[in-house]
Design a protein that fits this description.
4-stranded parallel beta sheet; globular; alpha/beta
């Protein structure tokens, strides 16, 4: 099992974490093709998560923007985002490893809620690390985690966002390796997490491919997804990577604009380096210190990007662009007003790209946008930016 995506990826962790990662890799290799394990996971995805999620024709948006838009509705998965696909898979893997407790990090809160849900479903203990800033802007999800029995630990270091939550979770994991599995939330981090998360999220791509062939009788011209760490994007991209005629477009957080220092667009201004165990594109200064990031969406507010995305970008198989906070907020409102769907602010970045680049397509074009989560969690944030007091 390769730990590299070209020159990217790897296992840049303290020596004491290496045995734990080797244990995770060994368990994954043992069970990934095991019929009993896969059968149990598929049953949970079908009967508990609610898969397959729909591929919805966005008829009103298509008429308004002049090309055929479909939305892959991960917002319809249980807990409201794609995160549950990975958490059910890793939680089941952890049970097979004999672990009794899950720890995780979260930014927007959706991974925390999904981890707490999987832990409760499988009778495991759960602790979630979350930056103090993210706790403030995702209060509802924090309450949901606590309602599900999870302990939520406020991280008060650094920028008090996702980067610092991951660092704290890794530090904690070292102290409890015997009974605890670190349930990493995105297609990033030290090997083998990028491969494991991609595997458990590839169900999005498999379903989307089958569904668009059923609806259109052909593959789409483009697949668009937001990119933080990159789990929802690599999940849906995986269904189309071998189809050279399908454009794969990842959309990063442009924040206040990439000419400012307030964004999280790693491919636009980042440089190659190491963060949280992986070699990839990172926002850093000339001394290698990690730069502060900014995005209106907590889930995209991260200084690094998944190593497979870095490879796909280098070899020209995927394109990576960005949408600003203002563009994402406008797309959030546009999808609600035109289609009656409020997307997560993360997903709104992908919608914004499609709106902004409508000139790339014509009336025969088919574009699939991965709606990675629902917007309920972001209503307070959007109201604040609109000057509305709730």
């Amino acid at each position: 099992m390769s730990s590299r995506y070209g020159e990217y990826g790897g296992t840049y962790v303290p020596e004491m974490l290496v045995p734990a990662l080797q244990e995770v890799e060994a368990a994954y290799l043992r069970y990934k093709d095991d019929l009993s394990f896969r059968g149990e996971l598929e049953a949970y995805l079908r009967e508990y998560v609610g898969r397959p999620t729909p591929l919805t024709p966005a008829k009103n948006m298509s008429a308004k923007y002049g090309f055929n838009i479909y939305l892959k509705r991960e917002d319809q998965a249980f807990t409201g985002a794609h995160k549950i696909n990975n958490t059910m898979g890793q939680a089941l893997l952890a049970k097979r490893m004999g672990k009794t407790r899950l720890i995780a990090e979260t930014g927007a809160g959706q991974h925390g809620v999904a981890t707490a849900t999987a832990a409760r479903a499988l009778g495991m203990k759960c602790t979630i690390y979350m930056g103090e800033v993210d706790i403030q802007r995702q209060k509802m999800n924090v309450f949901r985690m606590r309602l599900l029995g999870a302990e939520v630990v406020a991280v008060k270091n650094g920028t008090r966002t996702l980067k610092d939550a991951i660092s704290e979770a890794m530090r904690s994991w070292v102290t409890c390796l015997d009974d605890t599995h670190y349930l990493f939330g995105t297609a990033y981090g030290p090997h083998p997490y990028p491969a494991i998360v991609k595997d458990f999220q590839s169900v999005i791509g498999r379903e989307a491919r089958e569904q668009i062939l059923d609806k259109e009788g052909r593959l789409p011209d483009a697949v668009v997804a937001c990119v933080g760490g990159g789990s929802n994007a690599i999940g849906i991209f995986s269904g189309f990577i071998d189809d050279e005629g399908v454009r794969l477009i990842g959309v990063e957080a442009g924040g206040c604009g990439i000419s400012t220092k307030k964004h999280a667009a790693r491919f636009q201004t980042g440089k190659k380096g190491v963060l949280h165990g992986s070699y990839t594109y990172i926002l850093q200064d000339r001394y290698g210190q990690i730069l502060d990031t900014h995005s209106v969406s907590a889930g995209l507010d991260y200084a690094a990007v998944g190593p497979e995305h870095a490879l796909l970008r280098d070899v020209g198989r995927a394109e990576y662009s960005y949408a600003t906070d203002d563009e994402a907020l406008a797309a959030f409102q546009e999808l609600g007003m035109v289609e009656g769907i409020l997307p997560a602010l993360e997903s709104a970045h992908a919608v914004a790209w499609a709106m902004k680049n409508r000139g790339d397509f014509n009336k025969r074009s088919v574009v699939v946008i991965n709606l990675s989560g629902r917007g309920d969690k972001d209503v307070e944030t959007v109201a604040k930016h609109m000057g509305v007091s709730l």
